[in-house]
């Protein structure tokens, strides 16, 4: 067997791996119908950890306050802010008796550690069912709390939600950010559907306080300053206690980064945190990304050297069709359908972006929090 044959057969194997991921693994979420939820009557504590977020709190906190839910409190955690964040919190707490403020000051042991601030907030919360979001997030509807709360049961004590980003017309960066967010959501929703939950996003995440204490909070990764959401879920979630919520009235929407530099810094933190996932999760995610890179690389080699190029075109069409169907059905569920027409370009660009982040993180460690 010649090297050219090896290259082509390698391309076939990699394409098959991609088809399995998009068609089978991701299909467990993409091709499943939405399951109706049952209204629950559980008191909810909403936790928002804010560091220098005065402007965003003024803009988005009213959307939390105005939620249509029978019994909820808002725990505002001021994480040693140096702007007017605390003043804004106090302004709203004077007007609403369901707002509680936890004012965190820096100390030598937990300097600039969001997990320490969140721990104090969780301990101060009045209710056992906790719902997390960020200061720059806005619920899509007034039923956000009720929809997320409806997925709690006696057995399901962790609820993974979707945190979208605002749409910016005619912005390629915005579409790239939203594509990466969509793909990440497809992955963690699909793995949860397959009873292998591995992460959630702090922009829209809920769990019972008992889950926090079962893992001794963030203690196992307290020195890793990021990962208060995904690392916690990676440790606490399992096939029995985790469920997902993806009805459109349960979404939150956040302000996306406005420049590639800002987004690059943000994703560096996220990628470095993922290195601390459980091995099986890292292996499955790594296989997907490696197979993505190899698919396009081997495709270029096949076309350049004209190795069974007719078959290569057929394989490319099949793979793209399955990818479009898988991502398309998910995009429809998560209201991101407008990014589909740029799908191949966004995929290739994101592969290069992530590879650059990986190499950069090897050279130097990223900074954390704010």
From TrEMBL:
Gene3D superfamilies: Spore Coat Polysaccharide Biosynthesis Protein SpsA, Chain A (3.90.550.10)
InterPro entries, per database record: Glyco_trans_2-like (IPR001173), Nucleotide-diphossugar_trans (IPR029044)
GO terms of molecular function: glycosyltransferase activity
One Pfam family per UniProt: Glycos_transf_2
Membrane-spanning segments: 6-31, 283-301, 307-327, 339-363
Keywords per UniProt: Glycosyltransferase, Membrane, Transferase, Transmembrane, Transmembrane helix
Keyword Cell inner membrane annotated: no
Keyword set includes Transmembrane helix: yes
Matches recorded under SUPFAM superfamilies: Nucleotide-diphospho-sugar transferases
Every Glycosyltransferase 2-like domain range: 45-179
Domain of life per record: Bacteria
Family: Belongs to the glycosyltransferase 2 family.
Name listed for the protein in its UniProt record: Glycosyl transferase family 2
Organism expressing this protein natively: Lacinutrix venerupis
The organism's taxonomic lineage, starting at the top: Bacteria, Pseudomonadati, Bacteroidota, Flavobacteriia, Flavobacteriales
């Amino acid at each position: 067997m010649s090297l050219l044959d090896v290259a082509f057969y390698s391309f076939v194997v990699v394409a098959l791996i991609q088809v399995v991921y998009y068609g089978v693994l991701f299909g467990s979420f993409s091709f499943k119908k939405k399951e109706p939820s049952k209204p629950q009557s559980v008191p909810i504590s909403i936790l928002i950890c804010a560091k220098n977020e005065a402007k965003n709190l003024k803009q988005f906190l009213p959307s939390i306050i105005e939620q249509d839910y029978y019994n909820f409190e808002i725990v505002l955690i001021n994480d040693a802010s140096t702007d007017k964040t605390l003043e804004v919190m106090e302004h709203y707490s004077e007007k609403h008796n369901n707002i509680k403020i936890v004012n965190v000051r820096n100390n030598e042991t937990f300097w600039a550690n969001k997990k320490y601030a969140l721990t104090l907030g969780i301990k101060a919360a009045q209710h056992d069912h906790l719902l997390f979001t960020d200061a720059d997030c806005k619920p899509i509807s007034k039923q956000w709390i009720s929809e997320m709360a409806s997925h709690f049961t006696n057995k399901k004590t962790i609820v993974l939600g979707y945190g979208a980003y605002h749409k910016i017309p005619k912005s390629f960066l915005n579409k790239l950010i939203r594509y990466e967010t969509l793909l990440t959501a497809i992955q963690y929703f699909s793995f949860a559907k397959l009873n292998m939950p591995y992460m959630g996003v702090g922009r829209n995440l809920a769990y019972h306080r008992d889950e926090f204490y079962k893992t001794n909070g963030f203690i196992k990764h307290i020195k890793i300053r990021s990962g208060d959401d995904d690392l916690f879920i990676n440790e606490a979630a399992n096939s029995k206690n985790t469920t997902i919520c993806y009805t459109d009235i349960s979404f939150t929407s956040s302000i996306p980064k406005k420049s590639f530099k800002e987004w690059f810094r943000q994703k560096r933190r996220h990628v470095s945190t993922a290195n601390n996932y459980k091995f099986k999760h890292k292996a499955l995610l790594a296989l997907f990304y490696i197979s993505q890179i190899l698919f396009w690389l081997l495709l270029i080699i096949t076309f350049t050297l004209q190795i069974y190029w007719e078959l290569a075109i057929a394989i490319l069409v099949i793979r793209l069709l399955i990818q479009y169907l898988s991502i398309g059905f998910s995009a429809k569920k998560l209201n991101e359908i407008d990014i589909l027409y740029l799908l191949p370009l966004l995929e290739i660009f994101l592969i290069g972006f992530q590879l650059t982040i990986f190499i950069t993180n090897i050279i130097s460690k990223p900074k954390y929090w704010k």
